[in-house]
Amino acid sequence: MTELNPQHSSLPEQDHDHDVLLIAGSRPDVARLAPVATAFAESDRIRALTVATGPDPMSVHEAFEALGVPADITQLLREPPAPQPAAIASILMSRLDELLVDLDPSAVMVYGGGMTAAVAAQVAFWRQIPVVHLQTGVGTEDLLCPFPQEANRRIIGQLASLFLATASSGLNPPTGPNEIRVGETMYANRQPADLQFARLVRRARAGGPRLVLVGLDRADSLGVLAGLPELLDLESDMELVVFGELAAHGAAYPLLQHERATVVHNMPLAELVQLMAASAVLVSDNPELVADAPGFGTPAVLVDGPHVAQPGDSIRSILSPAVMTTVRQLLATAGVTPVPTSDGLEAARVEQAVAWMFGLCPSPLLSSPFPSSTEV
């Protein structure tokens, strides 16, 4: 299989002096890069091309579509990769290298410390293409926590030309003179179209009740569904959203009567991204959904799942009877880190910084001030 857009003529017309590839390998990557693509298009100084790639490129492609920014290029894999990291990295490396040779972009932008970001940064460095690294301001002192993202983040930091910090961190010194704090671009995505979900997200981000998101599809997860009413009774400062196949089961009926519970069968991906990012805990029997959660900063509980724990892992694979105990333990620590506020200019700050890197404007900062540390 090849790219969905294999011909350059199918790409947006190049009428700019510079172009940047926004390379996403997971849905959390898309949540940060989709609003950045919109900001580039609105400013119209630099052409931005969105690239859906990674171990599961179609899920990335669908995430771009759901967030209103269709992928310009989707790199389908020639064959399914083996699950080992080295096998995935080797396939991505050759595919991304081919893409960079074909398009010869002015720069590439990657988010965080995922496998795709690390590989894309390495290949771009070999091709002497500048790397813009989004999320350099978040870090830990432990190379193994989170694993392997922290190690990947440090590797990318050695290769990047421009560092865009999504949040301040007292753990690490500034990466260098080209580190600019832009804020969390995920908050620049459009709000959920469903007003009920939009209100839930606003309340959670404003320090209101903690949000627990539960996605259940398998019949053997009915025990978890049946335990949710008791969890609501025990945790008075909590709101609950349940979705998935089991939301239509009779065991969900008591939740329909509860004022702090919302039950839906189908959850649009655009709403799911916002809810996951605002949640204190995600509980699901879907391994792919749980694997995405740490990228949104959300602890996750995989119900009866075949998960192999890694150092610093925020995913917990729990047998059904112990799920509620684990959720309560996670809720007890939720809310320790304040949720930053957003002024909606995070993606615009990214575009401004990249334009400055190319010499298209005199300052890397927008004229409007960045919120003070007390506001974020």
From TrEMBL:
Top class in the EC scheme: isomerase
Residues annotated as transmembrane: none
SUPFAM superfamilies named in the record: UDP-Glycosyltransferase/glycogen phosphorylase (SSF53756)
Keywords in alphabetical order: Isomerase
Matches recorded under InterPro entries: UDP_GlcNAc_Epimerase_2_dom, WecB-like
Annotated ranges, domain UDP-N-acetylglucosamine 2-epimerase: 42-303
Pfam family, one: Epimerase_2
Enzyme Commission number(s) of this protein: 5.1.3.14
Organism domain of life: Bacteria
Family the UniProt entry places it in: Belongs to the UDP-N-acetylglucosamine 2-epimerase family.
PANTHER family given in the database record: UDP-N-ACETYLGLUCOSAMINE 2-EPIMERASE (PTHR43174:SF2)
Protein name (database record): UDP-N-acetylglucosamine 2-epimerase (non-hydrolyzing)
Organism (species): Pseudonocardia aurantiaca
The organism's taxonomic lineage, starting at the top: Bacteria, Bacillati, Actinomycetota, Actinomycetes, Pseudonocardiales
